[in-house]
Structures are given as C-alpha cells and as structure tokens.
Amino acid sequence: MRRRPCDPPGHDGRRPLWDDDPTAMAELSSDPGEPTRRPQPGRRNALSMLAPVERHTVQQRVYLELRRSLIEGQFAAGEVMRIQDVASRLGTSTMPVREALGRLVSEQALEPLPNRSIRVPLLTRERLDDLAAARRLIEGEAVRLAVRRLTADDIAKLRRITRGYDELTAGEEDHGHRAIYNHAFHFGIYRAAGSKVLLPIIESLWLQTGPFIRASASLYDGADGLSATHHHWRIIAALEERDGEAAAAALGEDVERAFELLRDRLAHDEAETPT
C-alpha cells in the first residue's frame, strides 16, 4: 500500500478500523492554536466576528505524526532520531522536523544528545516509578469521572476494541498494532470523563510512557496466567456496574502490570551486568 507523506517509519498506510470512532488516534489532540478574531471597522454583523480558518502548518503536521507515533509506542526507549533521517522519511525539509522535535523535547517526550541528535529517553527505575505513580493517580480519577458518563454504546465500543485486541494477540506478534488497540481502549474512557484539564495531562503522560509500554508488550509472555486484556475486561465489567472505585482499581493494576514487567527486566539486566 502506498505510504503517504508524514507517515511514520514502518507505517503501511492503513488506518485503524475505528477511524470514524471517537476513540481513534486521529482525534488525539491536534492543538491547532487559538485563531485571532479581526472585526472590521464599520461592520457589526455576525460575520465580522468569525475567525479565519487556518490549515495546519507542515511543522504542526510533523509534530502530530511524531507525537502520535510516540504515544502508540512506535519508537523504542533509547532510539536515536537524526533530524535529516526523520525529514527524509516524512518527505519534508529539516526545519519543521527540528521545530517539532524541539517541542517534544520541551514536553519531556524526547531528550537532546551532545551530537545534536535527539533520543527517546532511556528506561530507568526512577522514571518508571514516577510515571507509574502519576498514571495511576491521574487516570484513576478520569475513570471515576467517566463511569457515569459512558453510554451503553460507548461500553459496547470498548468491548469491540478489546475483542479486536484479543484477536490480534492470538494471531500475530505485532506490538505496534497492539499499542494502537490499547490506546483506543484507554482514551475511549478518558475522553468520556469530560475533563478538559485531565485529558491533556493524561496525553502528556502517555507521550512519555509510549516507548516503555512497547517494551513492556515485548516482554509479556503470559507466565502469570492472565491474558493481555485481562484487566481491560475487568474495567469493562466495573464500568457496566457503574462502580468507579472498582474500575479505578482495575485500571491501576493494568498500569502496574506493564511497569512491573519493566522493573523485572531492569533488575535482571543489573544482575547480569559485571561489577
């Protein structure tokens, strides 16, 4: 399938099956900026208060593509991005890429290197613990708020996404596609919370966590006897019962399970490293 300009590396041009669904990645956060109203002197009708519609700049589109790819876990922890390489892949000049990467550095999703390259932050125990605690706290509250707002149709969509995740897990080892389903499930709930304050905070946490979740998915082996979507089904059951505390508890266990896999790997690597 033909790749479009600004498709990230490894993207085959296909969009998720729920592209027209409110949980789709395309709705994540476009951040177009606030338009400026310019009323014209002598004209006091309603049209004078309309703001001009502006298309996304190339820089904004590059930023959104990179942001989406980071949240979906398409980039691995420690992966180095060179401005020229990213620009070549996205079919743009280096200027919008440099600006987009700088913006992501300011959001702590990326970090600069001395050689002017940009890197996805490395896994460290301190960073894992900090992000895990923040996610349990903030996302747990969003789940509590969403409990009374989710409709039967909303919950049915969560069920369809989770069944799709199960089918994907059984059929292939594509961790990138799993991350897309995982994101769609969680943000289908968080958007329903209706909080304009919590949602951008959660998006920022996922922006920083995406590469770690990819690493966690690659470590999952089912040794604990639970399916990859075990906690998702528990969350759905609690939402159907309108039990906010049970839903938040299941969400916390879902988050902690992913991070615990990474802590175990770090402990193993530390034990294997010669002193």
Please outline what is shown here.
With 275 residues, the chain is mostly helical. Helix content is 56%, strand content 2%.
% residues in beta strands? under 5%
Helix percent band = 55-70%
Structural class: mainly alpha
Principal-axis shape equals: globular
CATH topology term of the largest domain: Four Helix Bundle (Hemerythrin (Met), subunit A)
**Biggest β-sheet: strands ordered side by side in the sheet:** 1-3-2
How are helices and strands ordered from N to C? Answer: HEHHEEHHHHHH
Give the second-level CATH assignment, the architecture of the largest domain: Up-down Bundle
The top level CATH class name of the largest domain: Mainly Alpha
Into how many domains do the coordinates divide?
2
The tally of helices reads 9
Number of strands: 3
**Model regions low in confidence, pLDDT < 50 over at least 5 residues:** 1-5, 7-41
Mean pLDDT: 80
The Cα radius of gyration reads 20 Å
Classified in CATH, the superfamily of the largest domain is GntR ligand-binding domain-like
Biggest sheet descriptor: 3 strands, antiparallel
